[in-house]
TrEMBL record:
The lineage of its organism: Bacteria, Bacillati, Actinomycetota, Actinomycetes, Kitasatosporales. This is DinB family protein. It comes from the Bacteria. It comes from Streptomyces botrytidirepellens. InterPro entries: DinB/YfiT-like, MST-like.
């Protein structure tokens, strides 16, 4: 059994500002997800090792849409084309066969950069705008809730990728 490359260290334990922790941990888990995919061939990225059937590339595309749904369509209330575009007709994650893995990764990285810039300096207590994902102010969560939700989603999916990577080539995550 081989060891995967050691991911970058967690954000420093000296952080005390909640906003800085959210931003730092989101970036940390974004990078962890990408590192867990590094070294897998296009074929491995498109191969499922799990009974549920999702592939590592589908998960990466899903996370791109998750950020888009929660921050662009959700928090900012902007209209977006196909907010659920990561799902196929059977409601499962999907990646078109003609969409190369390098393009899926590039779109993920672009979305993450957009997300960082769009919420930079925005207070955690600011509520999401209505008109996009949220119809009423009562439905609209605060940015802090959204960032916490994104953080738990990344952490959960990074753990799932640990299992997938170990099944694919024996690399063990940390």
């Amino acid at each position: 059994m081989t060891r995967a490359a050691h991911p970058a260290d967690e954000p420093p334990h000296s952080l005390t500002d909640t906003r800085e922790m959210f931003d730092a941990y989101l970036d940390y888990y974004r990078a962890v997800v990408l590192r867990k995919l590094d070294g897998l061939s296009e074929a491995e990225l498109r191969t499922s090792r799990l009974p549920s059937g999702w592939t590592p590339l589908e998960l990466l595309r899903h996370l791109t849409f998750v950020e888009r749904r929660w921050l662009r369509w959700g928090f900012l209330g902007e209209p977006v084309d196909a907010p659920w575009g990561d799902r196929g007709p059977d409601d499962r994650w999907q990646v078109p066969d003609d969409l190369p893995a390098t393009e899926v990764r590039a779109r993920f990285e672009e979305q993450c950069a957009w997300s960082r810039a769009a919420i930079a300096g925005v207070p955690l207590e600011r509520r999401a705008r209505t008109g996009g994902r949220f119809a009423t102010e009562a439905d609209a969560p605060a940015l802090g809730w959204i960032l916490f939700h994104l953080l738990q989603e990344y952490a959960r999916h990074a753990g799932q990728l640990d299992v997938v990577r170990e099944l694919a080539d024996g690399a063990v995550g940390e």
